[in-house]
Amino acid sequence: MKITKLLLIGLAVIFFACSEDEDPKPTREGLLGGWTVTAVDYAGTTTTTVQGISVKSDFTGKGKDMAMAITFNDNPATFTSTGSYTVTLTSTTAGQTVTQDYPFEGFMIDGTWALDGSTITITNANGTQKATVVEQTSTTLKMKWDYDYTMSQQGASVVMKVKGTYAFKKK
Length: 171
Hints:
Blueprint: H1 2-13, H2 28-31, E1 33-50, E2 53-72, E3 78-93, E4 96-105, E5 111-116, E6 119-124, E7 127-136, E8 140-153, E9 156-170
Antiparallel strand pairs: 1-2, 1-9, 2-3, 3-4, 3-5, 5-6, 6-7, 7-8, 8-9
């Protein structure tokens, strides 16, 4: 259960990290405006090590009950977000699979953004994270992200590796 909570804390802090799959040549102008989140999906592993003993957990997460939106503004290039969602997290540790729903209030922390090729860089109070725009039309937007996180505390370490996708619909 502690592993699951650490995973969720890590995911709650994150919005984007980096991936290099495709180059759809998104445009800055195409990102501007309001977007509603239509899908949140991710998968990864968490390895917890205590006193030299490691335990690996595989997990998947799928968003539901989504009421989230983000708005990309220009001059200055800022973004704001609102909303909440529930993630259905399925984790398997030592042959035991557990599925549980976790509600999240707040989507992400507001900040600034920049687009360079297919890479969107988000900067906020949590730092800088990147995502790759893999699809952009006048009505849809899809981004993939990778996230690696390491935390050490009181002789224990947690290493998390996550790959995820966000899908949006233009408001």
